[in-house]
Amino acid sequence: MSDEKPPQLVDYFVVAGLTDTSRPLEEENQQHRPARPSEPITDVAVIIRSQGEEVPHGFTCIETTTSGHPVDLNAGLLNNPQMFICYKRGRDKPPLIELGVHYEGKDRPKPGYKILDTTPYSRSANLNSGGPGHQRTFLTYRRAAEPHGHNTLGVTDICLVMPSKGESTPHTFCRVDKNLNTSMWGPALFLCYKIAMAKANTLVYEAGLLGRYPEQDSESFPLPESVPVFCLPMGATIESWPADTKYPLPVFSTFVLTGASGDKVYGAAIQFHEAFPRERLSEKQSLRLGLLSVVDRRPVAGRSLQTRKSICVLSHWPFFDVFRKFLMFIYRYSISGPHVLPLETHISHFMHNVPFPSPQRPRILVQMSPYDNLLLCRPVSSPLPLSGASFLTLLQNLGPDNAVALLVAVLTEQKLLIHSLRPDVLTSVGEALVAMIFPLRWQCPYIPLCPLALADVLCAPVPFIVGIHSSYFDLYEPPRDVIFVDLDTNTIFQSEERKLLSPRSLPRRPCKVLLASLHSLSQQLDEMYSGPGEEASLELLLSDAEAARGRRAQLELEARAAFLRFMACALRGYRSFLRPIALAPAPAGRDAGSLFALQGFLKSRERAYHRFYGQLLRTQLFTQFIEDCSFASDRDPCLEFFDTCVDKVQAELEKPEDTPLMELDDPRGGEHTVFITPPEQPAGPDGAELPARYRYDGFPTLRPELLEPPRDPLVAQLCQARSSAPSSPAPRRTKQEMKVAQRVAQKYSSVPDMWAKCLLGHCYGLWFLYLPTHVRAAPAKLRALQLAYEVLRKMEAHKVVLPDEVCYRILMQLCGQYGEPVLSVRVLLEMKRAGIVPNTITYGYYNKAVLESKWPAGTQSGRLRWAKLRNVVLGAAQFRQPLRQRERRAAAAAAAAPPGGRAPPAPRPGLQRQTTWAGRSLRDPPAAPRLVKSGSLSFPGGTHGEGGRGGPGEPPTTRPPPLPAAPDPLPPRLRGPPGSADGSLSDVSFATDESDRADEGPVGAGGPAGGTPRRGLAAKLQQLLSPGKRPPLRPAASAELPAGSRDAADAACPRRGSEQRDGEPPPRRSPAETLLRPRERPESTASESSVSLGSELDLSDASVGSAGVPKSSEPPADGVAGQEPPAVEVLLSSCSRCQGCSALVYDEEVMAGWTSDDSNLNTTCPFCGRSFVPFLSIEIQDFQLPPSTAEDGSLPPPTAQGPVLSDRRRCLALDEAEPELCNGCPDAAVPRRSERVAFAYLSPLVLRKELESLVENEGGEFLAQPELVDSHPIIYWNLVWYFQRLGLPSNLPRLLLGSQHVAPAPQAQPPDSPCVRVRLLWDVLAPEPDSFPPLYVLWRLHSNVPTRLRSWRPHGHPFSLAFLEAVLSHVGLSEVHKAIALFLETVAAPGGPRNLQRSIYREILFLTLAALGRDHMDIAAFDKKYKSAYNKLAGSLGKEELRRRRAQPPSSKAIDCRKSFGATLEC
Prior knowledge:
By secondary structure, this protein is α+β, with helices and mostly antiparallel strands. The protein is about 35% helix and about 15% strand. The strands form 9 sheets. Strands 1, 11, 12, 13, 14, 15 and 16 form a 7-stranded antiparallel sheet that branches. The protein has a 5-stranded mixed sheet with strand order 20-21-19-22-23, with helices on one face.
């Protein structure tokens, strides 16, 4: 489990201001800049000199342009009235904050503006008074509202420019884009004005640290020393104001600090003024502030002294609105009072007791006082990196065209200087500039709010993005090679040395779509904010703030998606030019040229855009992007999301796609809100309230003794959010992969065959999630990894629908962890062979595994020689195997001869109609090594040629031999039976011939196999089911098995340590009984009722993980006898009863009823259509001996226990002697303890989601601990079911030994001796008390075959032996419709069962399986015949009637699920 702490909302609280060590910032460096105006402009006027008007007193007349050309507003007219513009400075009234030009009759008057229609001498101030035909033009202005502060922004300068003379708008000036000279004569003339903060008598110093909390640095994030200068970017000032000047409102600002590792820390600060004592000033400072007269040094009256301070919070989360409210509350608290609680209590309360919002508690309502509260909402869930960007602020301040121009500047790494008089806007726009180029990441200096103390960065010879206050230009000369972006005037200034690429150099269609989207968003913003921003925002806040916030969030998402679409179109197809590392990496392996085909990517673009792409490929942006794509990093989820966007976009379209690239996933709509109360006020000794004694003249110095309140432990639990386990980063799917998997599941849920493969893919995904735990416990890591690789190959061969790339990714990560780079390369090649292009996460893990692992030696000569020698030895052994096989057959025939000396009859030559389920004759030799295509997957085991385990006639395998000293980590059931050299499991249960048994056992054990062929009665029913000639229903002479063969079959049992059975011949039977009773089976079967999986894997075998009990057909391992009972046997069944109609719904029908929702536990009943939760029924049988018996050493004789289901040889021998089934033995061992439990049966989609959550919270190591069984039983039993179902190795069954379901093992037993056997059942574990037994159970009862369950009601049902024989006869004669009609007639007769739990299809299918055996039963052919019979009966009875009586066949989706997963082994 991860020990990481939950996210903390606030890291530090800082107070910054003027300290004793602060140094002045305004030095002699400003001689090149003119002196700043000390007073703002308060009035403008128009005078007509031709009418004798003079400049009014206190006004300044503008007589020339910026370059010295004379300005006359009516130049060129015949009756030139000689009009000029004048302005006046002062502080007697609020300053002007905006100027404009009004065309009468064309423009509507703007609210808040005043039209200057007369001169000071009461004449018309029409700027175009040349005649009645000219456009009447007037100046307009807007004045700041009352009351105004000392530092209110206002117009500080006015000028006129004449473009025809080569003049342009001066830097930091606003230009009114309306010509003052509207006549056809004379040059165009434009009005420009500058807005600034007119300051006088101000001293600027570098800000210092006045206080902080906590006082000690955090280990993970120490407080940066530069925080104070960011809190006051323009410095800590000392200002002299007139005595009656009002305090200005606090100014809110934000900034971003970037660490060495690229982590961002967000700061939110407010700046305010407070009184400063005169005693601390020197005489020189007093003179500069105007507090002393210059001549006699006498104090000047009527002046007040102020200083600027700042309070700030630092956090890793950009909750700027929340921090602004908190800081404003703290500031108001400091200037009001008195208070009962000190200021420090509220600061520490907010930092310690306000939790970070979690998915379970997305809303935190903080009540700071009876009148102040704030709502803290969880950040919007987005695959993009977290940032404080505001694209709407970018559009509002720059417009669409300038935004695209800045996109070109950022992509080509230019020097950008953003400036504004509003410090909070700088951070939002700067964050938007670095966010618009996603997935590229800005690598150069980035300071969205740069203090004056760090302004030297503007002279750096590298690209940068720097934001600065516009008053910087009043102090310093700006650099010449920088592109200036003025957010206040919506202008971009370019120098001659640094010209930007034109937006036309961008790809045309994507750029056209981007511009159209931005123009549409800008128009919507104008509609939202029709008036001035501040007033409109207040109006929206008062009217419908929640709706306005939601609308703004949606527009913000659309703006970001527009830039994302452009980047996806610009970089489309880039993944095909990545170069994977396929050989031992060279020293320059991380170079972008070796990781990416730069020239190939450039040639794939259109020639018209090569200039743009050429500059882009040379940037540090693109180089770092290629490294991030090539190696695993923390940006992998973001890059994987970008890859999905690349797949969605269509670059040739000239409009956005219908499918949005991003969706608004705002968790603020959650209903669960955590309420945080204000700090409790202490009470007096007698319970009375304490007096208010905390009052502050200014912001106080923080007192440490008041900053240590106890932290509420409950709050820490509220914000607890565990992160992914550090040992398992690869198994974790990204949110984007989960969404894609969900869409794929929804798409395939309506396609039957694809739905089954989709479920199968999720099942394999479950096993690969468990794979790190399995490999960690395996003694031979390489063999376990090779097994997983072979599983991937078979999955690809059988077209399994993989929902994501987690399977490949996990294996690549394990290859890197255990030093197998070659195998990682093979996994990548297999991935590409399957047509899967690895995404960024998978590609990063691959390159990491290849780059960091130790490669084998470059010379392979020694290994090749050993491989040649091995092939020669194996080839010679292959040539000798036929001779050995012939000798063993002869010895087996001699050992099986009767005492009289007569040899058993020779096998009858000719063709045999019996075939195994694998489609091969029972007498065929074992197939050559190959990949067998079957209904499900077959899995390879280890190499068998070296150990002598391979059967005769096997060619050597082509796989490289594993290390000889390494033990085999795979269970014997996955190594394949003797004769399966290729590791395929297609022949595990059914392809065993005589030579296999002759190879494995003594000579006496091979008599039946090498002698008489089995042409029993079950074979005749197989002939009846075939479309060929139907033989008469009479016994054949050759159907009886000779007694000698039965004796020889019985002789095989002592070889396995079991009790030898008597060889008495069975009693003579009637012809009908001989025909229909399940007396004989072909030698390849394991159980007459056994229904193998599509992978043909014997799932009745013990599943004991990597150290399980071997199959009884193999030599005993580790000293365990072949017939030793397991310590624990587990029976599992997924057959569930519908709560609506009481019908039994079987496994494939449950799978077909699942939905694609990964949170829905329900399935749909195929009979009544209702939803219900299916269950896994589990029966745990504990066979472990009591401790007293184990200590005495007296073990029960092995004869007390009959054959287990996987003991194929004994089952065959018992079948020859008695009509018994392997899963029903009269002498079966009685468990010492038995327990039945039931848990929800989960869909693979639901189970995978739960397993990922468990691994994320508890870590992958938890899957190897016995606590998993008791603490998460639903996940545990479902995993056991699916892994056993697909035959995948795991150690999960062994965890049962340490759970509460099993008694502790005796101490006398070795620790590895207990084993667990898992058996999967098709039917229910326990019958209903009032239900009638199914037909297959009645068949066994009539045949005196012991059944697993003895609680069925033996009497009171209408299903006689004659009825069963008639049903089987109709099925054998391909007259399934008659069998269905007979069943319906019998059920409808008086005394029939009132309710049928099983459908008629299920009853007939199970009965046929019980009579024939799995190997002589083709379920697919039976399904076709049953469906044809159903359609035939539907014409006479009607489909609705047949459905009501549960005679319908299973749906096509259920049939496909059974084909993909296979049928469970036992009934």
